[in-house]
Design brief:
The chain has 184 residues and is an alpha/beta fold. The strands form two sheets. It has a six-stranded mixed sheet. Helix 1 packs parallel to helix 5.
Length: 184
C-alpha cells in the first residue's frame, strides 16, 4: 500500500507492517487499545509484555509522559543511533502498551516515513518487531512470516529491499535520574 493508504489504516484503527528507523515493525495508533490488542494477537505475544512507541519529538512525548528526569532531553538529543528510553509513568495511551508498573518505552524517531505516519495521525505509534513471539527479528522484508504479512490491515511497501538489522538501544531512566541499560 501507499503511505497515504497506510495513514488511513492507522486513522481507522488498523494495524500496519512498516519499515522503522531500526527494523521492520508492526504498528498501530498507540492510544487505540483494540488495535494494540490485535498486535499482541498477530505476534502471538503474551500480553504482559509492553511495546515500544515512536513519537516525533519532545512536545508529543511530554503530552503522554508529563514527568521525567531532564537528562532524557540530553540523551535523546546526543544519541548517535536510535535510542528508546523507558519512562516511569505515562498517561493517555492504550493500557496494553504500558508495563505493569505504568512505564513505557518511547523513541523519538528521525526516520522520514515514521515521522510522516506519526504527524499524519498526530499520535504515537506502536513499533514492535515484525516477528512472531519467540522467533528472531527479521532483518529483511523477505524474512517476515507470511501470517504476519497476510493478517495486518496494511503493508507499507517502502524499503522492502533494504536490510534492517539494528534494533534500538534501550535504557530506563527513573525520576531520580538513575539509569539502567536494558539493551545496548
Amino acid at each position: 500500500m501507499t503511505i497515504e493508504q497506510t495513514i488511513e489504516t492507522l486513522k481507522s484503527g488498523g494495524t500496519i507492517l512498516y519499515p522503522t528507523d531500526t527494523i521492520w515493525g508492526l504498528g498501530c495508533d498507540a492510544t487505540n487499545d483494540a488495535a494494540c490488542q490485535r498486535i499482541f494477537e498477530l505476534k502471538n505475544r503474551p500480553d504482559n509484555k509492553s511495546f515500544i512507541l515512536l513519537v516525533d519529538g519532545f512536545p508529543m512525548l511530554e503530552k503522554y509522559v508529563p514527568e521525567f528526569h531532564s537528562v532524557c532531553y540530553d540523551l535523546a538529543d546526543l544519541a548517535d543511533k536510535p535510542l528508546t528510553i523507558i519512562y516511569p509513568k505515562a498517561q493517555g495511551l492504550a493500557p496494553s502498551v504500558l508495563a505493569e508498573n505504568g512505564s513505557v518505552g518511547i523513541r523519538i524517531t528521525k526516520d522520514p516515513i515514521c515521522l510522516k505516519l506519526i504527524r499524519s495521525i498526530r499520535k504515537p505509534i506502536v513499533s514492535t518487531s515484525a516477528n512472531l513471539s519467540g522467533t528472531p527479528n527479521p532483518t529483511a522484508f523477505s524474512e517476515i512470516a507470511k501470517e504476519i504479512i497476510t493478517n495486518v490491515d496494511a503493508v507499507l511497501e517502502e524499503r522492502t529491499n533494504e536490510k534492517m538489522i539494528t534494533p534500538s538501544q534501550i535504557i530506563q531512566i527513573d525520576l531520580d535520574g538513575s539509569v539502567k541499560v536494558i539493551r545496548s
